[in-house]
Amino acid sequence: MLVSITFDVEHDCPPYLTTTRGMEEGLPKLLDLMAEKKVRATFFFTAEMAKRFPELVKRVIDEGHELGSHNYNHERLDKLTKDEGERAIVKSLEVLREFGDVVSFRAPNLQFPSYYYDILAKNGILVDSSKATYKGYREGVRFFGDVLEVPASTTSSVIRLPWKVQKLVHARLKEPRVYFAHPWEFVPMQREKIRWDCKFNTGDKAIELLEMLIDHYRRQGAEFLTMRDYYEVYQKLKRE
Ligand SMILES: [Zn+2]
């Protein structure tokens, strides 16, 4: 059984807020939890957050996780021209690659016009995780040219639902199960003026539920893969 825990590392609840409580309080807690549970995760950083919190990027790398790109400053690719989008991606990679190797990408808001596969390939990206099964993408894990698409399985708020409810969702997901969440979901957002689904069970409750999710899959003998791990597996299959 293949499971992936991924985080989109950005300022708090874009585009509604500009604060960075998730970075200051949420991300350190997530890194502690991943270390305690011995799970390697993928962290898709915006370049902006990497520049402001370089010590957290270093922690991600030093603790054996994968660093990916979540664009420069959370620009939505579907709202930019192709050239503007490419410039934002290239600029984000320039910043992130100062810290280490970056081969994976996730588009902000999982908005990813398919002509970006070529742009990613040209810029050394091997894995994209911008398509979403819950938004109707049905093709599973496959190559688009040289880029492997590893779609996200559920929207992030699912893993904050009461455990009994979310368990039913997990059981119905196809493999690989690719979850994503944001650092700001792990600090209390109840007082902010944002959408209801962005606030419920945020804070320590979300940490507790993520821990339950990891334990749930551990008990079933699941393997936790980073995005780059999929590339190794599928590249091998392709050669055989
Ligand atoms: Zn995002």
From TrEMBL:
<dbReference type="GO" id="GO:0016810">
    <property type="term" value="F:hydrolase activity, acting on carbon-nitrogen (but not peptide) bonds"/>
</dbReference>
<dbReference type="InterPro" id="IPR002509">
    <property type="entry name" value="NODB_dom"/>
</dbReference>
<dbReference type="InterPro" id="IPR045235">
    <property type="entry name" value="PuuE_HpPgdA-like"/>
</dbReference>
<protein>
    <submittedName>
        <fullName>Polysaccharide deacetylase</fullName>
    </submittedName>
</protein>
<feature type="domain" description="NodB homology">
    <location>
        <begin position="1"/>
        <end position="97"/>
    </location>
</feature>
<dbReference type="Pfam" id="PF01522">
    <property type="entry name" value="Polysacc_deac_1"/>
</dbReference>
<dbReference type="InterPro" id="IPR011330">
    <property type="entry name" value="Glyco_hydro/deAcase_b/a-brl"/>
</dbReference>
<dbReference type="GO" id="GO:0005975">
    <property type="term" value="P:carbohydrate metabolic process"/>
</dbReference>
